[in-house]
Amino acid sequence: MGTRERERDRELLIPVANVETKSSPPPSPTTVPRHSSGKEAFAKVIRSWASKKFMSGCVILFPIAVTFYITRGFIHFMDVFSPIYDHLGVNVIGLGFITSITFIFLVGIFMSSWLGASVLGLGEWFIKKMPLISYIYSASKQISAAISPDQNSNAFKEVAIVRHPRIGEYAFGFITSSVILRKGMGDEELCCVYVPSNHLYLGDIFLINSKDVMRPNLSVREGIEIVISGGTSVPQVLMVLDGPSITPPTIGNFHV
């Protein structure tokens, strides 16, 4: 009797266990809540916004910082009279810099006279006798003469645009002089064009027919600024003084 009752109990318990097993859901993997994905998207938007604003601040402050640094260095470089005033016991802010500017102004007045030009010529004669210093002085003098307000100086005459190195490409240059080429077919007027290849102090010299040289509406100072800035200050529209706007040659509807 005991064994039969045990068997009945087992029959009754087994279906119940099966039902409980079927009704219990299988273990599900841990699910990520939706609010966490929203937080990640919000954090990405904040990081993108912050990085853009930071780069905008750098772009705005970089030219200001460079200008301030160069101006400060220029003031310290030009303030050569401050040690003299300090030695004399005169402590006036900006007095040394004002004295330096006044001194440069007086030098400009003196060198514009006949006596100053004679003294300058004598000094240049001594400098040209020195092997290494003469090259440095000549290069720096050519650069300073290019931006000199004296139009009679041997400097860059005009800004030029020439086809270089091949058709369809143009290069900025400076007209330094004009040359008459005598040949059997007749005389040909050529322009000596200096095309900078490394900022302003290194470049190539080309003799180009004056008819093939385009003269844009740019001053020499603007041309120097374009070369030094790497082309970032080029105007959006360039007009040739003796012709229409500079546009690349076209064949049909296609640009060369």
List the defining traits of the structure above.
4-stranded antiparallel sheet, 7 helices, two-stranded antiparallel sheet, alpha+beta, about 260 residues, about 50% helix
What is shown here, in short?
The chain is an alpha+beta fold and 256 residues long. The chain is built from 7 helices and 6 strands; from the N terminus they run H-H-H-H-H-H-E-E-E-E-H-E-E.
Describe the overall structure.
This protein is an alpha+beta fold. Helices cover 51% and strands 18% of the residues. It contains seven helices and six strands. It has a four-stranded antiparallel beta sheet, with helices on one face. Strands 5-6 form a two-stranded antiparallel ribbon. The chain is flat.
Helices and strands in order:
Blueprint: H1 2-23, H2 34-78, H3 82-88, H4 95-111, H5 114-128, H6 131-146, E1 158-163, E2 170-183, E3 186-198, E4 202-209, H7 220-228, E5 250-251, E6 254-255
Antiparallel strand pairs: 1-2, 2-3, 3-4, 5-6
Q: Which stretches are low in confidence, meaning pLDDT under 50 for 5 or more residues running?
A: 16-22, 243-256
- Major β-sheet strand ordering: 1-2-3-4
- Give a short account of the largest sheet: 4 strands, antiparallel
Give a count of the beta strands, DSSP E runs of length 2 or more.
Answer: 6
pLDDT averaged over residues: 75
Structural class: alpha+beta
- The portion of residues assigned to helices is 40-55%
Rounded to the nearest angstrom, the radius of gyration is: 40 Å
Q: Secondary-structure element sequence?
A: HHHHHHEEEEHEE
